[in-house]
Design goal:
Layout (H helix, E strand, L loop, with lengths): L3 E3 L3 E2 L7 E2 L4 E7 L4 E5 L3 E7 L9 H4 L4 E4 L10 E9 L2 E8 L6 H11 L5 E14 L8 E15 L19 E9 L5 E9 L5 H19 L4 H10 L3 H21 L10 H27 L20 H11 L9 H9 L11 H19 L4 H4 L1 E5 L5 E5 L25 E5 L2 E10 H5 L3 H32 L18 E2 L7 H12 L16 E5 L3 H9 L22 E5 L7 E4 L8 E6 L7 E6 L5 E14 L5 E4 L3
Parallel strand pairs: 6-11, 7-11, 10-12, 14-22, 18-25, 19-20
Antiparallel strand pairs: 1-10, 2-10, 3-4, 4-9, 5-6, 7-8, 8-9, 10-11, 12-13, 15-16, 17-24, 19-21, 21-25, 22-24, 23-24
Helix pairs in contact: 3-4, 3-5, 6-9, 6-12, 7-8, 9-12
């Protein structure tokens, strides 16, 4: 019983002359019968040839105009994009005329036709059945050669990649599915090569052959039942994939399809509860109504939680706050037909107790407020996060951090047969970090709910998010501004920036190549806490007043020294020294600060309470001071000095 197989890409004759747009036809070469190295499941590597003798090829399907023209050999997933109208074998090459379906009927066919016409797709592959092959003995002692002398092409496909420049690479024939005969090339008395047929031995399937057939049948059935591409089954059959692995792969592909389908379901996830769906739909609608630009920016910034906000149209988009309050009550089994608007508002705002659900109105408002708060916090621009390294502490007590010291001295020489000597690693300097709490309270009243005054709630929560971020920004620059820009007073009664710490360039210089280079040298000469070794730090961030920001960026990017008056161009010694130039209106004057990479030697740290993230958190309770709901916004964070070696300052000029 013969088995169906496909051959890999062959050269496609798809230049401009071969395409007839009016008739929607393309002339192709579907086989040249070239010798190609292949590999069989049982017999290992071998060379394969397709005999292009017209007597060896059953051309009935191609010549009758019934053979389809496919895309990637897909028969079950994609329909045929055309038909093989005419085919023939001439001078050892199989040629054919392929006609595509009418324009506009099949978009896939239209795209393929244009790619062929443009010369983008230039490869085809033929599917065929083999009935008899010859085994050429004596041609190559290590790798046998098989020639198909009775085979039948039944479809032609456009494919992406061609391997054989003449005729392409064909799939390995399954030797146990067709008759095999062997012959030995000999030289005739006239001096020409002649193939003399010997030992015609039909192949009888054995147990291994039957097992292999069952493996391939099981793989093809699994792929077909999952409606995956036929080429996947062929590839796994050729690669020797086991049935178990093939089925596992098919299940994985089905799971991926299910996930993709879920993501397209307007934000509704299978398995999600009815209350969860309602809450997320209403929440998304309220967020888009009140602050759509913030939502879009937060999604781009990948702020946590905003990936589940649906920005498309929904049934909730036209509902007012009171409509949502009424819906939340009715979902909890509360009849609202006899209630006034104020009664609905009051009942919805207090519908939260031991047996409340996630669709209760206070939960909805809390989620919207929390997302607005965090989104506003995340997208509010700041500079402290670029300079400070983030740290966390477990509670409000002082937590210790160490500035690690290096080994005492370099490695000593160890003579032959001598002992290695101990090196001590002295304790690093110890410093403390902690957090403090700041925050505020906002609320929504029954009157605001009845008046659908959601904008007031949104603007308040957005303002609190921005205020939380700016409070840390202000704290950082307040520390920096102490002692005339030298930072806070430390335990030794000297400012953070002081000559005793080696982090001040006392020779004030204007913002220029020579001044920046001198600042760089000062930072590079910093030593570890024990004074044993140079830290060799390099500045990564330059901080200046906003008026100097433009000049600083030009200086950092310029190829030549822009401050020199020499008529000859002088190379810029500090070109690209800084990864980032930061300017701010919170600084004035000419003083500048150079910071080492915060991950290596942080001069300042931003400390957050563990479990609270790096932003504000919100808590809700029924209002006591107001007739409604109140939210308390809290930020447990603090900006602190850390290691003076990680920065250098220059008063400028």
């Amino acid at each position: 019983m013969a088995n169906t197989r496909k051959v890999s890409p062959l050269t496609l004759r798809a230049d401009v002359q071969s395409v007839n747009r009016d008739k929607r036809t393309v002339e192709i070469n579907w086989s040249t019968g070239a010798k190609v190295l292949r590999s069989s499941w049982f017999d290992g590597p071998f060379y394969e040839e397709l005999s292009m003798d017209p007597a060896s090829v059953r051309m009935g399907r191609l010549e009758s105009g019934r053979a389809p023209f496919l895309l990637d050999h897909s028969q079950s997933v994609r329909p045929a994009v055309g038909v093989v109208e005419r085919a023939k074998i001439q001078n050892g090459t199989g040629t054919a005329t392929v006609r595509f379906v009418r324009e506009g009927v099949d978009p896939e066919a239209d795209r393929l036709f244009e790619k062929i016409a443009d010369g983008i797709t230039r490869n085809v592959s033929v599917g065929y059945r083999t009935w008899k092959v010859q085994k050429l003995e004596g041609v190559d002692e290590k790798i046998p050669t098989l020639r198909a002398i009775d085979w039948e092409p039944h479809e032609v496909s456009a494919v992406a990649i061609g391997a054989d420049p003449d005729a392409g690479v064909r799939a390995a024939p399954e030797l146990n599915d067709c008759e095999i005969v062997s012959f030995t090339p000999t030289r005739s008395t006239r001096g020409t090569n002649q193939m003399e047929l010997e030992n015609q031995i039909p192949n009888t399937p054995d147990a291994a052959t039957l097992a292999e057939r069952e493996r391939q049948t099981a793989i093809r059935d699994a792929v077909k039942s999952a409606r995956l591409d036929d080429s996947l089954a062929e590839r796994m059959c050729q690669d020797g994939t086991s049935v178990d692995k093939a089925r596992a792969f098919v299940l994985e592909e089905l799971a991926k399809r299910s996930d993709e389908l879920t993501e397209r379901r307007a934000g509704i996830t299978w398995g999600e509860s009815s209350e969860g769906k309602w809450l997320r739909g209403a929440e998304s609608a309220l967020l888009m109504r009140t602050n759509a630009p913030m939502v879009e920016r937060a999604k781009v910034a990948k702020v946590h939680g905003f990936d589940r906000v649906d920005t498309g149209p929904s049934e909730f988009r036209s509902m007012t706050l009171l409509d949502l309050a009424r819906a939340s009550l009715e979902r909890r089994g509360v009849r609202t037909g006899h209630m006034s608007r104020m009664e609905i508002a009051g009942r919805a705002l207090t519908m939260r107790g031991a047996y409340s659900g996630t669709s209760d109105f206070p939960v909805l408002l809390e989620n919207v407020t929390n997302k607005t708060l965090l989104g506003s916090y995340a997208i509010t621009p700041d500079t402290f996060s670029k300079i400070c390294r983030k740290e966390t502490v477990q509670d409000f007590r002082d937590a210790y951090r160490y500035r690690t010291a290096s080994m005492s001295g370099a490695f000593a020489e160890v003579p032959e047969n001598a002992e290695f000597k101990n090196h001590s690693i002295p304790d690093g300097e110890k410093t403390t970090i902690n957090v403090k709490t700041r925050g505020g309270i906002i609320g929504i009243s029954r009157q605001a709910l009845v008046n659908d005054d959601l904008a007031a709630l949104s603007s308040m929560s957005a303002a609190l998010g921005r205020a939380a971020k700016l409070s840390l920004e202000e704290e950082f620059y307040a520390l920096l501004a102490q002692n005339a820009g030298l930072g806070p007073t430390m335990s030794d009664t000297n400012p953070f920036f002081h000559s005793s710490r080696g982090n001040v360039n006392g020779t004030g210089s204007a913002l220029g190549v020579s001044g920046i280079d001198a600042d760089r040298a000062i930072m590079a000469r910093q030593t570890d806490p024990s004074g044993n070794e140079y830290l060799d730090l390099r500045p990564e961030i330059l901080l200046v007043a906003v008026e100097l920001g433009g000049a600083a960026r030009v200086l950092n990017a310029a190829q030549y020294d822009v401050t020199t008056t020499n008529k000859f161009q002088v190379p810029n010694m500090v070109q690209g020294l800084f990864r980032e130039v930061v300017d701010t209106a919170r600084l004035t004057g000419t003083r500048r600060y150079l910071f080492a990479p915060p991950a290596i030697a942080p001069a300042f740290v931003s400390v957050f309470l563990e479990g609270q993230g790096d932003g504000p958190v919100i808590e809700t309770e029924n209002g006591w001071r107001i007739d409604g709901v109140e939210w308390k916004v809290r930020l447990d964070a603090k900006i602190l000095t850390f290691d003076p070696r990680g920065a250098v300052t220059n008063a400028g000029a």
